Every structure is written in structure tokens, then in C-alpha cells.
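Case study.
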Amino acid sequence: MKVAIIQQYKTADIEANRNRLVAEIRRAAAQGARLIVNQELHDSLYFCQTEDVDTFALASDLKVSGELYSALARELGVVIVTSMFERRAAGLYHNTAVVYDADGSEAGRYRKTHIPDDPGFYEKFYFTPGDLGIHPIDTSVGRLGVLVCWDQWYPEAARLMALQGAELLIYPTAIGWQDNDSADEKARQLEAWTTVQRGHAVANGIPVIAANRVGHEDDPSGATSGITFWGSSFAAGPQGELLWRAPADSEALGIVDIDLQRCENVRRWWPFLRDRRIDLYSPLASRYLD
Amino acid sequence: MKVAIIQQYKTADIEANRNRLVAEIRRAAAQGARLIVNQELHDSLYFCQTEDVDTFALASDLKVSGELYSALARELGVVIVTSMFERRAAGLYHNTAVVYDADGSEAGRYRKTHIPDDPGFYEKFYFTPGDLGIHPIDTSVGRLGVLVCWDQWYPEAARLMALQGAELLIYPTAIGWQDNDSADEKARQLEAWTTVQRGHAVANGIPVIAANRVGHEDDPSGATSGITFWGSSFAAGPQGELLWRAPADSEALGIVDIDLQRCENVRRWWPFLRDRRIDLYSPLASRYLD
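After joint prediction, the assembly is written out as follows.
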């Protein structure tokens, strides 16, 4: 199955962002992609660099903001993984991935469960932790383990998806460097980000798709020099092997052939699910064991 | 803290294996190592290539087989992580890591919990799954998260160690290639093995030490052409960064400086433990969620 990974820079012009994204989705479909994975919060700048109540105006009812992608999925006959700023009620917002099936219907949605809060990534201010649980979404191209950004650091989330039969792990994401980090530190961060997700592929015997943002975005508060999103979107196979990787500094469209049958074989060779010591795992639901 | 990683080939001559290992432990201590990590089942060949009841004769009371290492730890003033074939009772055997503290006392032991069973690695025949649970071992050089080989594929085991304050993950291991695998497949396997463990380092913000066997060992049954253990022992820091890696085809002694203070900083930058969704993790103790 051909999977498209779209890596773009974003501007403050939402209409322009959407137009450029639609053009790229059309290009991906024309190249045979049946599943199209977008980066996190693809309609806008990454607005969590500051805490500003006016920014909630960017959120919307997903029925409205998703209509464009639903129509596009139907027209092109492709499955599209989107990532949007959901206004659920006044004062209640989520970072939500919506998956549109090839007939334009909503196959399912996932509300980001693990919410970061670090300098420049003030997400706990904007996003209520997801209350839909961690569950894969069934589509016409397979059962998709859609998670979002910070989730990617959590082996628990990946494993829960695998235990529910997810055939692919998919991470829309927005991650980058603060400009005052050293070159060494930047390299370690990028490699750590790639490694932990490839690790999920290995531990669970399923492919991983990560779609990241690229380019520099200023800090509106001026407190920092902003974030340079590191691109490097990638696809890895069920042994964690890199199948494709985007550049760190420019837009990219990856069209990657994913062989879902290969997972069956890899899990026969490496039957990790067989040997899990579930009698010992209950303490994983503890905050800390002291 | 200087940590030594010893990577050796083994022969059928147990006395010779132990003598060569003792020499290497002395060399490591002379180079300033305070913690010395050995490979899995370092006293013998990897005997699980066939199922043979006579092989149980290799197992012993750990008080007996460990005396040498206990005395050496005391003499050299170092902490030694050993891996032995434990005879606990008639018909009851374990694959057990024993840690000797710098005063020669037994700091603790860990009985391998995840037991593989694959062609050439018939461990379920030999080793009863560990019943000591998954707990770190306190020593004079820190709290050590000692796991063994197949455990290395399980994020659950690494996380349980981290949640109990382990400062290092340590994997004595014996893993290699079957000779009929293609070069591509061999490369993927070695990289997957490295990646999943580096992923544990990243997800938990702690260093990982893996000590592997090296060299070819015949299949006594003649059914296969045997196993070529792939060496490539390594140390990774708390961002998964490779600090040292041994060659795939020869013996090696790594002396690696591990900065335990660095973990404190890495976990401040990447506070993954803060955001775990423990309300969602109970199903991890299920075999499968169907």
C-alpha cells in the first residue's frame, strides 16, 4: 500500500496553508497514495509558543474545519489523516486527529492524550487531555494506530494500539529545535525522536509513520528566538528499518510502499507478543513505584 | 562513573572461559571501571541451540558458581554483573543475573522473566520464567536495572525498572545471526536490536548497557549451521545517544564514562514521567485486547 507523508512549512495565512496542503494531497493521490498522513495542526502556525487566550479563536468545530478534507478524501478516494484544533465547547479544546475514509465519512477521531508543556510548547494551556482513550481507527486501508506528537515518546501508547490490532502507527507531529541549543544537542534530539519511534516499530512489529512540520516559526512574544521545526518525517518498517526520511530543512512529499503482510512474518520470527509477562505489568498503571 | 562492558567468544571449556573472563575483569578494573557488565551465560557456550536433558548438568547452585566472581568483586573493589545458569531444585532452573557488590556480597539477583523460544534459541526448555519480579538492584555504584537478553525487546520491563528508580538499564545478552539469513536481514536485525534498547534509554531518560557474546558456535545437533553471535555490545546515554559500540566480529572491552547526573537534566528537558496517562494503562496487563 502506498502511503503519503506530507511535510510542509506553515504561515499565519490559514487559507493559504490549506490551499497549499490541498495541492499536495492531490499530488500524493495522483502518485498512487491510498493513505495520506499530515503533520500536526497543519492548518496553522504552531501556536503554542505562547499562552494567549485570543489564540483559541483558531479552534473550530471539526465538522466545519474538516469539511474540506472530507470532501477531498471522497473526491480522490483516499484515506486522509488530519490534525486539528478542536473546539468542543466554550473553554474546552482538544488537539484532535480526524481520519476521513475514502468515501469521505469520518472513520474516527483521536484526541491527543499525552500533553506536553515545555518552554515554547505550552500545550497544557490549550489542549484538554483526550478522553476518547487510546484506540485504533478502522478504515478501508486498515486499522490505523493514530497518535499525536508527544504521544510518540510513550511506549505504552504504541503498545496499547498494537494490542488492539493496529496495523500501522501514525504520528502527526510538530517538533523542532530551539535555536540556542548546540549542534550536538540538536543532533541528539533529532536522533532520539527518530529512535524512540523506530523502537515502537520493533517492539510491536508494525510500521511507523511520522509526519513533521518544517521551517522556522517566530515566538510571537519575542521571549525566545522561536522554533525551527526539524522536518525529518519518516516511515519505518516493522523491524524499525527506515524506509524513507525527509530532509530537515525543506518541504517534502514521501510516497512510501508499506507491505502490511511483512508484519505477519516479522511477528512470526520475533513473537514478542507471545512472551509478555502480563502477570507483572499491572504496576505500569502507577505514577511511580516508591 | 566508568563502566566496563566485556564482549567475548566462548568455548566448551568452562574453566578456560572463566579464566579468560577473570583476566578481562582484572584488566577492566585496572582501567578504572567501577561497574563491570558481562554477557549472558558467560561461563559456557550458548547451550540452548538444542534441547538436551544432559545439558542441565551445566547448571549449578549460584553460591558455588558465583564464588569466583564474589571474591573477585571484593578483591578488586568493583561491582560485577554476572549471568549464570541457576539450578534452584531438581527440574527447576533459571537464567539468572547475580550482582556482586564491591565488598563481595550479593547485592541482588534477577531471574530472566521473558523467555524466548525460537529455532536455535530453545530457552523455554531450559529456563523457568523468573519469579522474583522485575526490580532494580541497589549497589554501591547505584540502583541497577538488570534485565537479561529477550527482556530487551520489552518496553514494559524497561519502564518498570525506571519507575522503581533504576539509574541504568543493563542487559547481559546472547544474540546472533543464523547463517542462512541474507545480509540485508542480518543488518536489519542488528539495527532493530540496537534501536529498541536505545529507545528504552530515550523513553526513560536513563543510560543503557548491553553486553553481548561474539563469535560462531556450532549447533550440536547439526540441524542448522549454528549461530554467529553478533557482538556489537554498546552503551547509550539517556537520550539514546551511542557512547560506545563494540565490533560485530571480535572480542572487545569497553570502558565507558557514564554521567549519571546527566539523567537528571535530560528528564527535566523531557519530562516524560510527568505526563504518563496512568488512567489509560491498565489494559497493558492484558494478553490482547480483542
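Observations recorded in class. Chain A touches chain B through 56 residues (CB under 8 Å). The mean pLDDT of chain A is 97. We will return to this complex in the next lecture.
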